[in-house]
Design goal:
There is one protein chain. It is built from eleven helices and ten strands. The longest helix has 24 residues, at 142-165. The chain has a three-stranded antiparallel sheet. The protein has a three-stranded antiparallel sheet with strand order 8-9-10, with no helix packed on it. It has a two-stranded antiparallel sheet with strand order 1-2. The chain is an alpha+beta fold.
Length: 350
């Protein structure tokens, strides 16, 4: 099943097959939809990594129904049986201490956003949308306009899922399942699972169109390693948010990929960096860090009598850094850290 070090499109590795053992007789659309619903249930918050691994391992829906519909009892039986043993081994003690949804200002409209794997999704969306609009104000551009519509489409889908699943009223996860993957009551199960399924007519005034969703749509040709960038599937009319945890991470990644082709990309990027740096300066000020020196997008902060922190794009040690004996380290307390610039060759983004 693996050729030339890369899996064939539409095929899965033996390791992935072990995650879905025992689920072969069920309809693939039903499995993806209901697994997505289970990932949204707040008590499962500390098992989002495991459930998302299951979602990524499940086959994409075929043109025709290929099995029976999975039900609450089926999930309970499978999760308590031996076939799900491999799934329970995926990050068994990992915690995801976050509310399942947050509220954000998106173009002066109050919207709900799924938290997922993109920490501070509300902040990221606001910064990138403002930067993309700055690029459009300089020069109207098809790529940047498509990027804006893509980010907005993701926000609209997120807001709809939160409203239908009633996640806006959820409290912080209490981890009452003690590391297990749970299944809610039948009524809540149906509400969560149906929330991730939609058609374009569900959105008012053509706020979401087919062209906007194309970059997020997984197909039979999508390599398994790219499934996290394609969180949607479709049967031609219905759409399914198969991987809610990846939604905003995918929309921003695909939006930036579109904007990169635009002649106003550097305007967008520099505007984003300026806004992001202002956010970091505000955070440092709140922590009473002192700016020792600033040059371009590079900032040197003093946060103790003998400790300094260096942050910024391609910041270099200049003459004003020579006296510093302490180790320089990047800010690791805020999710904006890796978007301030490209890492050095061979460096790994955290």
């Amino acid at each position: 099943m693996i050729a030339s070090g890369r899996e064939q499109p539409g095929r899965r590795s033996h390791a992935d097959d072990s995650l879905v053992r025992g689920l072969e007789g069920f309809e693939s659309w039903s499995l993806l939809r209901d697994a997505a619903g289970l990932s949204l249930w707040p008590p499962n918050a500390d098992r989002v990594c495991a459930i998302t691994a299951l979602i990524q391992a499940l086959p994409l829906p075929s043109a025709a129904a290929d099995g029976k519909t999975v039900a609450v009892a089926d999930w309970r039986a499978w999760l308590s049986g031996r076939d799900s043993r491999r799934l329970h081994e995926v990050v068994p003690n990992g915690y995801y201490d976050s509310v399942p949804a947050v509220e954000a200002r998106v173009f002066a409209t109050r919207m709900g956003l799924l938290t997922g794997f993109l920490e501070s999704a509300d902040l990221h969306l606001e910064l990138w949308l403002d930067a993309l609009i700055t690029g459009l104000e300089e020069k109207p551009d098809e790529y940047v306009s498509s990027a804006v519509r893509l980010v907005m489409a993701g926000a609209e889908i997120s807001n709809m899922v939160i409203w239908r699943a009633a996640l806006g009223s959820s409290h912080w996860p209490d981890h009452s399942l003690e590391g297990k993957i749970g299944v809610p009551s039948e009524d809540e199960y149906e509400r969560l699972c149906s929330s991730v399924e939609f058609i374009l007519d569900d959105f008012a005034q053509n706020t979401v169109e087919e062209r906007d969703l194309a970059p997020l749509l997984a197909t039979a040709q999508t390599p398994p390693e790219d499934r996290h960038l394609k969180p949607l599937v479709s049967d031609g009319r219905r759409y399914l948010l198969a991987s809610p945890a990846h939604l905003h991470q995918a929309t921003l990644t695909q939006a930036v990929s579109l904007a990169l082709r635009s002649p106003v990309w550097m305007t967008v990027l520099e505007d984003w960096r300026r806004r992001a740096m202002n956010v970091l300066l505000g955070i440092a000020s709140d922590m009473e860090w002192v700016v020792e020196a600033q040059e371009g997008s590079g900032v040197l902060w003093r946060f103790d009598t003998d400790k300094l922190a260096l942050e910024g794009r391609r910041a270099k040690r200049r003459a004003w850094l020579a006296p510093c004996a302490a180790l320089f380290r990047r800010l690791k307390s805020h999710p904006l850290r890796w978007w301030l610039g490209r890492p050095r060759s061979g460096a790994r983004r955290e």
